[in-house]
Amino acid sequence: MTISINLDKAKDIAHNLRRAMRAEEFAPLDQTIAFRLPGTTIKETEKLREEVRDKYKEMQGAIDSAENAEQLKKNLRDLQRKTRMIIEIKMMSLRK
């Protein structure tokens, strides 16, 4: 007996996860802008936001181009690892 995965539905789920991760990464940047945190500038923060948008645009392409479930899982794991590291680095750079 084999388990079959509907790749289109799996991609939809992956996109929802990607959107949630993107929102999580945007949250501290949005707060920086909303609360005008000391030691930060809007220009710096907007640059970081653009980097986040670019990263997730690239990931959207990786999800869409996945040819099987294993490739899709690998792409999501890679994104989760990158996201955790990048959030910490960006927050440190905002607090310089």
Topology:
Elements: H1 7-35, H2 42-65, H3 69-94
Helix pairs in contact: 1-2, 1-3, 2-3
In short:
By secondary structure, this protein is mainly α. The protein has three helices and no strands.
Write up this protein:
With 96 residues, this protein is mainly alpha-helical. The chain has one domain (7-94). Helix content is 82%, strand content 0%. The chain contains three helices and no strands. Helix 1 (7-35) packs parallel to helix 3. The N and C termini lie far apart (57 Å).
Shape by Cα distribution: elongated
Q: How many helices?
A: 3
Proportion of β residues? under 5%
Main sheet attributes: strand count, strand direction, barrel closure = none
N-to-C CA distance:
57 Å
What are the segments in which pLDDT stays under 50 over at least 5 consecutive residues?
A: none
Structural class: mainly alpha
Strand runs, count: 0
**Number of structurally distinct domains:** 1
The SSE string, one letter per element, is HHH
What's the gyration radius in Å? Answer: 16 Å
Overall residue-averaged pLDDT value: 82
Portion in helices: over 70%
